Amino acid sequence: MKKKKTLLFSPLLVLLALFWAGSRNLLTQQAPDMEATAAASKPEGAVHLTASAHAVPANGSDSIVEYAMSLLGSPYVYAGITPDGFDCSGFITHVYGKFDIAVPHSSALQAREGVQVARKEARKGDLVIFTGTNADVREPGHVGIVISSPGDTIEFVHSSSNGGVKVSEVEGTRYDLRFLQIRRIL
């Protein structure tokens, strides 16, 4: 009977050890408790990316951008996470989830995923983080996926409350005032 209990609990112990190792990795990056909680609530089998775990899909960031662009015209729906309607962070969650890369459904939490890179180094597949519509409140409130190459004007695809999934530019627009950072999760 003792052997059966050990065999039964072994997979659970392995999962707990993996979770603990991932949580430790998050905490060493000075992640707040709510991010550790979000990581713990990820769907079974989901990948949580951190600065030390860069997973690139076999077909690269071009495939992520291509899929994101295939969703152009999908409507904006508050808290939406499907092609029937997305909010900004739900769009990111859905697109990366299609490639088995789990990111939280929150622009504030997405602004802590991966590593920050310089604005001039923004490349396809990076996240571009903005304030909400009030640019004076310097906290994450909107997010998109970069579709341009380093050195080019930053173009991104996102789900906007003004038009649903569409392409916008940073430079020369109101997004320039709202810009906060670029996050690399691939």
Topology:
Layout: H1 2-28, H2 33-40, H3 60-70, E1 81-82, E2 85-86, H4 88-97, H5 107-110, E3 115-117, E4 127-131, E5 140-146, E6 155-160, E7 164-169, H6 174-178, E8 179-184
Antiparallel strand pairs: 1-2, 3-8, 4-5, 4-8, 5-6, 6-7
Helix pairs in contact: 1-2
Number of domains: 1
- Record the strand order, biggest sheet: 3-8-4-5-6-7
Helix and strand succession? HHHEEHHEEEEEHE
- Please give the largest β-sheet: 6 strands, antiparallel
Tally of DSSP helical segments: 6
Helicity range of the residues? 25-40%
Description:
- Residues 1-54 have low confidence and may be disordered.
- A six-stranded antiparallel sheet has the order 3-8-4-5-6-7.
- The protein has six helices and eight strands; from the N terminus they run αααββααβββββαβ.
- The protein has a single domain, classed as endopeptidase domain like (from Nostoc punctiforme) (endopeptidase fold (from Nostoc punctiforme)).
- The chain starts with a helix and ends with a strand.
- By secondary structure, it is α+β, with helices and mostly antiparallel strands.
In short:
This protein is of the alpha+beta class and 186 residues long. It has helices at 2-28, 33-40, 60-70, 88-97, 107-110, 174-178; strands at 81-82, 85-86, 115-117, 127-131, 140-146, 155-160, 164-169, 179-184.
